[in-house]
Amino acid sequence: MENAPIFTNDTIVFGLLMLCLGFIFYTSAKKDGFWSKFYKIVPALFMAYMLPAFLTTFGLISPEWETINEVGEITKHKSSLYYVASRYLLPAALVLMTLSLDLKAVFNLGPKALIMFFTGTVGIIIGGPIAILLISMISPETVGGAGPEAVWRGLATLAGSWIGGGANQTAMLEVYGYNQKLYGGMVFVDIVVANIWMALLLIGIGKKDRINKWLKADTSAIEALKEKVSKFSAETERNPTLTDYMIMGAIAFATVGFAHLAAGFLSPFFKDFVNGFESETLRNSMTFLGSSFFWMISISTIIAIILSFTKARDFEGAGASKIGSVFIYILVVSIGMKMDLTMIFDNVGLVAIGVVWMLIHAILLIVIAKLIRAPYFFLAVGSQANVGGAASAPIVASAFHPSLATVGVLLAVFGYAVGTLGAIICAELMRIVSPGIF
Q1: How many domains does the chain have?
Q2: In the list 217, 237, 429, 430, which could disulfide-bond 317, CB 3.0-4.6 Å?
Q3: How many Å apart are CA 30 and CA 35, to the nearest integer?
Q4: What pLDDT is recorded for position 20?
Q5: 3-state SS record for 165-219
Q6: Is 438 among the domain residues?
Q7: Domain final position from 59, 79, 99
């Protein structure tokens, strides 16, 4: 059966996505009337995420689809827009947004960022087994299964994704040998639940002052960093010339090109190096070192941090972070198009497990944030550095202020490092509580 969307040409799809962004920014700039009231409730970033989701839901566009020819052969198709946005525009955005970074001021944010990140990790680790226990009381068959088809084995791949990223998720698929024919169902839950949670975090950003007041949070360090960057931007502000734009493009994409080049050497080298470990646990916990995406993001960020100590930081006055924000928004709409809202009803049982799991993660974050009076920024970015990884954490962080995008990346790197080990602990706990174990 064909499930092709109306528009399959990436050029046309990209045009539609840009049209969405143009509409959002045009309406959000209105100072009075309906749109002014609307965007006080719904953040523009959330709209940039949801409009493409509606286009996908109504079949206008799609991230992937299948066609069948006259002889019954199935051909799979996939849009390349997310790949381009995440591999080319995301690292370029990180470079441009990091040029004005004040590393000392980032460190002055204190330990609460790490505390909230690891709280999010713990929330995922304990959330899985608790979700299985709760759902098993209502529907034991939903969390049952035996051998390679045991549901807990599939959920182990979710744990890998929600603590680390794609490399950690693949590692868990190999470690626990989940039936790969059923793996698509777990990927589907990952997309649906993680994206719904990200949408809720984005809505929360629009109400961050009220949330911070309830948390009794001390936001002085964050505000100081934002003010310092804004002041520097104002001091160096100038009318950008074509030369400025060309040099910023050269800095951004030359860095991205070098990062891809270096990742091409480093990822296979470390993949072979890690495979040489005798300990299977150690091999699995270091899988992320073989990920080219990990190295590409890490190298881009490191180079950008180095450049922030040079005269390149003066390009902030020419609008470096604004160009970076354009790239981030293009990434957001490409992520949004991966979300088909009707998918929620395709496998209600597994989605219910994911929702309960994420709810536990959220509750733990809120409790700890309340106890240590952590700002909503640390809660949102700490969560997204786990659940969304390096592709999503900078989006959420930059929604607070472009200068904070690097904080999201740095925390996401921690996620890669602890992803597989944390997922193994979670998987073993899920195995213990799954129906039929005792």
Answers
A1: 2
A2: 237
A3: 6
A4: 94
A5: CHHHHHHHHHHHCCCCCCHHHHHHHHHHHHHHHHHHHHHHHCCHHHHHHHHCCCC
A6: no
A7: 79
Highest mean pLDDT pick, 339-343, 360-364, 416-420: 360-364
Residues 69 and 158 in one domain: no
Confidence of residue 138 (pLDDT cuts 50, 70, 90): confident
Distances (CA, A) of 422 to 186, 287, 360, 383: 18, 13, 16, 15
Among 176-190, 305-319, 321-335, 350-364, name the one with the lowest average pLDDT: 176-190
Please give the residue that has the higher pLDDT: either 347 or 28: 28
Q: Distances in Å between the alpha carbon of 288 and those of 161, 296, 359, 425?
A: 11, 12, 27, 17
- Verify that 30 and 127 share a domain, yes or no: no
- Residue 330 sits in the same domain as residue 409: yes
Question: 9 in a domain, yes or no?
Answer: yes
33 dihedral zone (left: phi>0; alpha: psi -120 to 50; beta)? left
Say if residue 297 is in the same domain as residue 319.
yes
Q: What is the mean pLDDT of the chain?
A: 84
If asked whether residues 209 and 322 sit together in one domain, one would say yes
Considering the domain architecture, whether residues 323 and 423 belong to the same structural domain is answered as yes
Residue 146 CB partners (closer than 8 Å, separation 6+): 436
**pLDDT computed for residue 346 by the predictor:** 65
Burial 14-33 (b: 16+ CB within 10 A, else e): bebbeebbeebeebbeeeee
Residue 158 lies in a domain: yes
Domain boundary residue among 79, 95, 118? 79
pLDDT at residue 180 in the model: 65
* pLDDT at residue 356 tops 80: yes
Same domain, yes or no: 7 and 124: no
pLDDT at site 349:
79
Quickly list H helices, 206-277. Answer: 208-215, 220-236, 242-275
3-state secondary structure of 67: strand
Measured between alpha carbons, how far is 317 from 235 in angstroms, rounded to an integer? 7
CA distance 50 to 55: 9
Parent domain of 41:
1-79
Residues 67 and 142 in one domain: no
Helix 405-433 with 292-307: angle, nearest 10 deg? 150
Residue type, 96: L
Q: What is the pLDDT of residue 246?
A: 96
Q: Is residue 314 part of a domain?
A: yes
